[in-house]
Design brief:
This protein has about 375 residues and is α+β, with helices and mostly antiparallel strands. Helices cover about 30% and strands about 10% of the residues. A hairpin with a 4-residue loop joins strand 1 and strand 2.
Length: about 375
Amino acid sequence: MGQPGSPEEYGGNNSALVIADAYLKGLRGYDIEKLYEGLLYGTEHVHPDVHSTGRLGHEYYNTLGYIPNDVRIGGNVARTLEYANADWGIYQLGKALNRPDKELNVFAERAMNYKKLFDPAHNLMRARESDGSFSEPFNPYNWTYDYTEGNAWHYAFTAFHDPQGLIDLMGGRSVFNRMLDSMFTMPPLYDIGGRRNIIHEIREMQIMDMGQYAHGNQPIQHMVYLYNYSGEPWKAQYWAREVMDKLYSAAPDGYCGDEDNGQTSAWYVFSALGFYTVCPGTDQYILGAPLFKQVKLHLENGNTIEINAPDNEEDRRYVSSLKVDGTMYDKNYLKHADLINGLVLDYRMSSEPNMKRGTDEAAFPYSFSRE
């Protein structure tokens, strides 16, 4: 088993997704070719002193498809999963820039590297050794250095760009939904592993008392919306409202954890509107349940988004039906272009879930495997 070496240093290569998302959503006024060149450079380099810049462990990731546990790189599981997501973003941006297929195919293949760490025996993401074997011993509640401020449960759903691929790995929608359900029903057990003490993210998970769901730390915040990909969107509606109601308040202690560059606030703002950006780089916002009876967003282009839910109440958190510009709408997502052009969303809310709406595969959001 590998031993802790370098600190976690908050791995990932998320600038790739920021740039891809901005360009693909139509933002201009910069040298995209130069930025793309920088993204390619970053997949094969790391800053000599600031290891969160570029890709620490790229030499392993680019050859093995993952960063091993035994090469003294902290957050190896987290880095691998986030690098795969970033590679998907580079692939999508490269397509838009008409880059050659030979180049694109590399990133399309690497976007599937999240599968390299999937352990079908546990349906969780686990660290591997350089020889390909899973690291032992394994404790899914261990906040070990293989992950970044989390455990195997928190990183089990880190395939933002390919939930369908993850569903397939887990054995289908039924198993996937049970795994999602389990996050909220398990006790908030933890093991600090090789850490010297309990970090505040662990304590916040305990205090929130939503099982292993640790909303106070960002890696898991997309999870409630994944029910939209697996045929049970009413559970996304339930849990999004549950998190808003219980874990946020207009008080000095109104945050349930780190703000981290505005992410915890952004989750609330989007979720209160009734949708969330699970995967930057797509044109989709995944539906939850609006918090207010009416919201009007006046966009800088002069258009307006109007969100109406007149029968919305604390005990009416489920979406019975949704109309978009007067037409019944059954999909589990909204498109960026439609929102930017302005639209009217009319919700009928209910105290009972509508278990038929949004359950057909045609209603599911984007997954790379389906592309």
